[in-house]
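stage 2 :: seqdesign
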């Protein structure tokens, strides 16, 4: 028995040795034949040229072995265009025959290997692909020759690409081709279809390594019949490199350690389900300053296709483990009309909205939305494409929602219930604490402590109308109520029309000091800040009617602006160095670019002010006039003069005389508020029972 085993081992070793020797002899003979018949290589190149329709040059031919299977190698292959320029090149093309096929006498190659292949491809605006060196058929479809090549791929059980390069041109790449290095790509056929395994290296400005796997049932040559699954993973992705063509100039996006995974399913040649998962370290969006940032970010998107449309679920979109968006977008074709449905449990606008306004060729409203802040919850949005025009509806709960100010308007802190459709909408505010910015009209934002209002808007033939028939508010010690209507014309460039009536009161008028009109001069604002030491406003009335762009209507009298204030317990420091007016009861009238203060009672140096009128005829003139009548004791007038800038002029009188009795003084002051030292004084004194 032992002798039989040794005999079998001897035969087996002998057969293997004979096969190796025969293979080596066959390879050597093949090399000698190629050297002995130089025209063989040229004949082979001519045959390949006939197949490809292009001149071909072959650098060398050899026969090698992969185990017990032979491998036929063509080296240094170059494909030329009709004008003689190089269009395609590869270092090595190998054709291998499997041992199984050899045993049944089938010499048809079962393995194709390409090494050092360099391909240039161009994708046009219609999405058609043209590979350098190969002509497209009519209307961009593959020619019959190309279809035959795809069918010929079915003959190979294994196709391998190693150390290859693919350069793709597209208008979106802005003249810089995308270069992918194919480290190794393996396509292996099986009984159902094929398996694909690929390792690619992205260009440095776009990322690191990309790995792709796919298990597909169906013929390689017929993508319309593919069914199966795929998965791709990538690391060190660089978002700026991918997104630059779609970003507005000056926009920068940087992400550390950005990696992703894309997986999905294919049915009938179409992608029916995909999942995209991205995660990064530090993330920064910048354009003229940092717009949004996070120490870490993550996003998970799920896409599902159905016969009538598709669905996109935002399963997770988080910055620093804080959810920015969780919701879904659906599209369905219903009765021939496109229907979009968007639902969001949470939409955190402050950190998410800046990403809306950095893209090229986006609608104006989306750029405006890029200034949004706050949180939206329970958002339900429906949009329908109808022959009569688009229809939509929306409802949501707002929490601290705002819009960063541009040149004309900004607001923040709006909380309430929102509902709207294409014809109009409603927003209910209950004890909201919003901030309103009117950069063109007011120096500082209005920061309300409470605001109650029902806002309604509607669409008409001449534009949109926003109105509140009744609102109430509190701001520091100021509180009031009123109504307003704002007409937004549909005509481009036309000014909004404002109709506002409000009644209010203030325990401390200085609480309104930060909200001075921007068009007032610096000197006037300085005088009001210094001059109004204290005041109480039992009642105030505000009315604005007319085009907003013409406010305050003194240059163009197209509207009405008036502010009436009843003032009590006021102290006025009307000019530096002069004694203050105290215990003032007065009425202030703002009209256009003018102010008139009518005093109904006051104290000046201890004497009673019988009447006084203070005027700014025109704020741009910077001149304050004071006309008053004061009655009281002469001794107090002496005290007033000693405390005024007139003490030097009247030093001789004041130092050398004394007076008692009653007097009436009519006084006129003209005070340049930006040069108070140039104040002019005129008056008349009537004395009774003087001593």
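stage 2 :: out
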């Amino acid at each position: 028995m032992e002798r039989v085993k040794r005999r079998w081992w001897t035969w087996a070793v002998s057969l293997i040795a004979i096969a190796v020797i025969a293979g080596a002899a066959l390879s050597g003979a093949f090399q000698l034949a190629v050297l002995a018949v130089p025209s063989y290589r040229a004949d082979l190149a001519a045959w390949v040229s006939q197949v490809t329709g292009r001149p071909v040059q072959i650098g060398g031919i050899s026969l090698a072995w992969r185990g017990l299977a032979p491998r036929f190698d063509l080296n240094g292959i170059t494909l030329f265009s009709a004008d003689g320029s190089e269009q395609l090149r590869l270092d090595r093309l190998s054709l291998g025959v499997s041992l199984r096929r050899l045993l049944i006498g089938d010499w048809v190659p079962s393995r194709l290997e390409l090494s050092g292949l360099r391909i240039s491809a161009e994708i046009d605006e219609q999405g058609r692909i043209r590979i350098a060196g190969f002509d497209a058929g009519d209307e961009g479809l593959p020619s019959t020759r190309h279809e035959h090549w795809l069918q010929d791929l079915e003959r190979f059980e294994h196709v391998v690409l190693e150390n290859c390069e693919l350069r793709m041109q597209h208008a979106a790449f802005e003249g810089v081709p995308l270069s992918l290095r194919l480290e190794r790509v393996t396509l292996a056929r099986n009984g159902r279809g094929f398996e694909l395994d690929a390792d690619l290296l992205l260009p440095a400005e776009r990322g690191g390594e990309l790995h792709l796997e796919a298990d597909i049932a169906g013929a390689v040559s017929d993508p319309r019949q593919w069914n199966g699954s795929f998965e791709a993973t990538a690391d060190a992705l660089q978002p700026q490199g991918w997104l630059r063509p779609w970003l507005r100039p000056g926009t920068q996006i940087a992400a550390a350690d950005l990696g992703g995974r894309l997986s999905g399913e294919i049915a009938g040649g179409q992608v029916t389900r995909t999942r995209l998962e991205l995660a990064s370290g530090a993330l920064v969006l910048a354009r003229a300053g940092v717009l949004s940032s996070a120490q870490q970010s993550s996003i998970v998107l799920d896409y599902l296709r159905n016969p009538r449309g598709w669905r996109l679920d935002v399963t997770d979109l988080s910055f620093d483990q804080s959810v920015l968006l969780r919701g879904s977008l659906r599209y369905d074709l219903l009765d021939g009309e496109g229907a979009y449905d968007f639902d969001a449990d949470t939409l955190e606008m402050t950190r998410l909205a800046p990403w809306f306004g950095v893209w090229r060729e986006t609608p104006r409203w989306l750029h405006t939305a890029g200034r949004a802040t706050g949180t939206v919850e329970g958002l339900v949005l429906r949009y329908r494409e109808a022959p009569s025009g688009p229809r939509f509806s929306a409802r949501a709960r707002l929490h601290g929602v705002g819009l960063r100010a541009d040149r004309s308007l900004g607001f923040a802190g709006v909380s309430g219930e929102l509902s709207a459709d294409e014809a109009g909408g409603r927003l209910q505010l209950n004890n909201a604490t919003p901030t309103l910015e009117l950069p063109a009209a007011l120096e500082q934002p209005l920061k309300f402590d409470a605001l109650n209002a029902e806002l309604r808007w509607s669409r008409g033939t001449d534009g949109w109308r926003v109105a509140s028939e009744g609102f109430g508010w509190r701001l520091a010690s100021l509180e009031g109520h009123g109504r307003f209507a704002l007409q937004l014309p549909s005509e481009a460039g036309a000014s909004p029309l404002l109709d506002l009536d409000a009644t209010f009161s203030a325990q401390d008028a200085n609480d309104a000091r930060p909200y001075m009109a921007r068009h007032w001069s610096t000197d006037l604002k300085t005088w009001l800040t210094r001059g109004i030491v204290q005041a109480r406003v039992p009642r105030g009335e505000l009315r604005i009617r007319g085009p907003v762009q013409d406010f305050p209507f003194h240059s163009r009298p197209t509207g009405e602006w008036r502010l009436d204030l009843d003032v009590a317990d006021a102290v006025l420091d009307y000019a530096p160095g002069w004694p203050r007016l105290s215990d003032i009861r007065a009425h202030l009238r703002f009209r256009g670019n003018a102010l008139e203060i009518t005093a109904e009672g006051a104290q000046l140096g201890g004497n009673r002010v019988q009447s006084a009128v203070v005027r700014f005829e025109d704020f741009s003139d910077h001149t304050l006039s004071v006309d008053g009548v004061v009655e009281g004791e002469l001794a107090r007038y002496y005290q007033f003069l000693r405390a005024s800038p007139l003490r030097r002029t009247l030093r001789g009188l004041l130092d050398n005389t004394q007076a008692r009795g009653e007097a009436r003084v009519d006084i006129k002051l003209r005070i340049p508020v930006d040069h108070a030292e140039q104040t002019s004084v005129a008056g008349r004194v009537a004395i009774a029972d003087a001593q």
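stage 3 :: structure notes
- The longest helix spans residues 2-36.
- The mean pLDDT is 80.
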